[in-house]
Specification:
The complex is a heterodimer of chains A (252) and B (202). Chain A is an alpha/beta fold and 252 residues long. Chain A contains ten helices and twelve strands. In chain A, helix 1 runs parallel beside helix 2. In chain A, 52% of the residues are buried. The chains are: A alpha/beta (252), B alpha/beta (202).
């Protein structure tokens, strides 16, 4: 059977990985290529690169980074951030991305997923969605989780699948950064709605959270996290051995 | 020199980068005069079978590959490239492949019940038979992305993975090899397969 996947996410700004704020409140940066190599050696199953570069002029720093990673690391690479048009797909695919993740781009342009899937295949198109509870229902938020679009998350997931997305990354705004575990209730609902791979994001604080995720939400395919891996709070080899000891199939 | 067949199907960045990484001398081309200088070939491919088969025919690369295989040069098909090695595929109708391997490529959806389609992710490879590409590959994990498959119990299959059904992972007929998974995306285990192919001496 296909294994569950462990995926570190790297936010890249101006050519450097931004590791977020650690417990001392210090913002830290690191070289993307060496961090990606570290994760590859640690047994990460895939890497996600998020382009959070603010200025348009510095966009090529991101694709330079992507290229140097893709020339040395031979596991699947997903790229997101600022993907609004087919030419954005083209730009990152040419630099070694295997999958391209769209978020706000799909909200602004509803045909983006369909057009990209037709051109590059469903396997290449990932719909990334930021979800938050509003009055007891799950809604899609845009602009990095600041604006309520009013779109129902389950309908959005279904529509994404029907338009040709090959995979979903589902980030819970409610659990993100809280480190008390993934949003199991929401993920369960999403997994019952679609039949494409679902990557859970937001809330992992310790290795037990990944076990709980894979044990309780059978339809989830992968767990994604950033800072707990960047700050070595959870080491991927330990995490994977632990999950295997709990009978979750992993690539060791 | 290894020739990567360029027929306008899929993204070749990772494949060429991985060949460079293992120190394999490779050229990407559709030009027979360039390909004539190669002693082995890789047929890549992502996308739809019928479209890819048509592109091979319209460029004449199908005949070129048939002659190359007849002359004994090793050929490795990857993913859709592997599926094209077969006689036919049942992807949206029936379509003829290159016919190096007797057999059919079938939809996974008919066999795997409620499992997700495509199979996307890492799966364990189980080696059935010795194959020069499969040194130390038994039990290793490889990265698959596909919705159609060749039978893992077929005569041509040397290694398989299970996904509701036995899926051919590595196939072979004489000097024709194929992998359903992506060796260029399967970490060290995948690079080892590419290296073995670049050194295969039949």
């Amino acid at each position: 059977m296909v294994t569950k996947r462990i995926i570190p996410c790297l936010d890249v700004r101006d050519g450097r990985v931004v590791k977020g704020t650690n417990f001392l409140g210090i913002k830290d940066v690191e070289d993307p290529v060496s961090l990606a190599s570290f994760y590859n050696e640690s047994g990460a199953d895939e890497l996600v690169f998020y382009d959070i570069t603010a200025s348009y002029e510095k966009r090529n720093l991101f694709t330079d980074v992507l290229k140097s990673v893709a020339e040395q690391i031979f596991i699947p690479l997903t790229v997101g951030g600022g993907i609004n048009t087919l030419s954005d797909f083209d730009r990152v695919l040419k630099c070694g991305a295997d999958k391209v993740s769209v978020n706000s781009g799909a909200i602004k342009n509803p045909s983006l997923i369909e057009d990209a899937a037709r051109l590059y295949g469903n396997q290449c198109v990932v719909l990334s969605m930021d979800v938050k509870r509003v009055d007891g229902v799950f809604r899609i938020f845009s602009h990095g989780g600041r604006i309520d679009t009013g779109i129902d998350a389950l309908e959005w997931a279904k529509r994404g699948e029907e338009s040709g997305a090959g995979e979903l990354v589902v980030n819970s705004i409610d659990t993100d950064g809280v480190k008390r575990g993934f949003d199991l209730e929401m993920l369960e609902k999403i997994c019952k709605t679609v039949n494409i791979p679902v990557i859970a994001s937001g809330g992992a604080g310790k290795k037990e959270d990944f076990y709980e995720l894979f044990d309780k939400v059978k339809g989830v395919d992968a767990g994604l996290a950033a800072s707990i891996f960047h700050f070595r709070e959870v080491l991927i080899p330990d995490l994977k051995r632990y999950l295997v000891s709990k009978n979750i199939e992993m690539r060791l | 020199m290894l020739g990567v067949i360029d027929y306008g199907v899929g993204n070749l960045f990772s494949l060429t980068a991985s060949l460079r990484f293992i120190g394999c001398d490779a050229v990407v081309s559709k030009d027979p005069s360039v390909l004539d200088g190669c002693d082995r070939f890789i047929l890549p491919g992502v996308g739809a079978f019928a479209d890819a088969a048509e592109k091979l025919r319209s460029t004449g690369l199908d005949e070129y590959l048939k002659n190359a295989v007849k002359s004994g040069k090793p050929l490795l098909g990857i993913c859709l490239g592997m599926q094209l090695l077969f006689s036919e595929s049942y992807e949206y109708g029936v379509h003829k492949g290159l016919g190096f391997i007797d057999g059919a490529v079938l939809p996974l959806a008919d066999k795997v019940g409620s499992l997700k389609i495509p199979q996307m992710g890492w799966n364990k490879l189980l080696v059935k038979r010795e194959n020069p590409l499969l040194k130390e590959a038994d039990g290793e994990y490889f990265y698959y992305v596909h919705s159609y498959f060749a039978d893992g119990d077929g005569e041509y299959c040397d290694a398989y993975s299970t996904y509701g059904v036995n899926v051919a992972g590595v196939v072979r007929k004489d000097n024709v090899f194929g992998t359903q998974f992506h060796p260029e995306k399967s970490g060290k285990a995948g690079l080892k397969i590419l290296r073995s192919f670049s050194e295969v001496n039949l």
